[in-house]
Amino acid sequence: MLKRKDQTKKPQASAEKLSQEESAREQTADKTAEVKAKVSHKKKDLLAKLQQVTADFANYQKRMARNAEETRQWARVEIIKSILPAIDDFEQALEAGKTAQDVQSLVEGFKLVHEHLLGMLSSQQVQAIVTEGQKFDPAVHEAMLQQESVEHEPGTVMAELRKGYTMNGRTLRPARVTVSKSPSEQESSASDDAEQGAGPGNNDLED
Length: 207
What we know:
Blueprint lengths: L1 H98 L3 H21 L2 E3 L12 E8 L8 E6 L2 E3 L2 E4 L1 E7 L3 H13 L2 H7 L1
Parallel strand pairs: 2-6
Antiparallel strand pairs: 1-4, 3-6, 4-5
């Protein structure tokens, strides 16, 4: 009798174990499905945010491009407005030149135009480059000629051929200049001979 009772208990225990395992598998499947649903929702949410950020950045780029273009246009407007007074003076000078009795009045008119133009350049932080007597600087000077000189050190700007300008410290246009160089050896020797010929001994001969 005892053996039969043990045999009836074993099938019942196996059935309970199978039921527990099945329940565990169902719970695991439910949790997996829940996790997948959360991940899918998170992915959709992140994708939506990414699309929104991309659209916002594209709109920002377009807005900045419009602002930059408007800034360039207004900068041109301001420059043109600053030139208009000089044009007015130019036209008045030309009109006055038709009836002017002397050249001086016409020259004064052109001087006025020149001053207005220089004032316009100055308002835009444009400055003329200093040249004569300066050491040659390739950043702001453009050497057009070299001229031998005993009065200047080699590499010194002797003359300005065309003005140059800077804006906020940056070169807009280099100044065209003539630069000094050392006299040739032949000329230096001739110069030395001339100096010796003018010495005291020769003065005695002249006497």
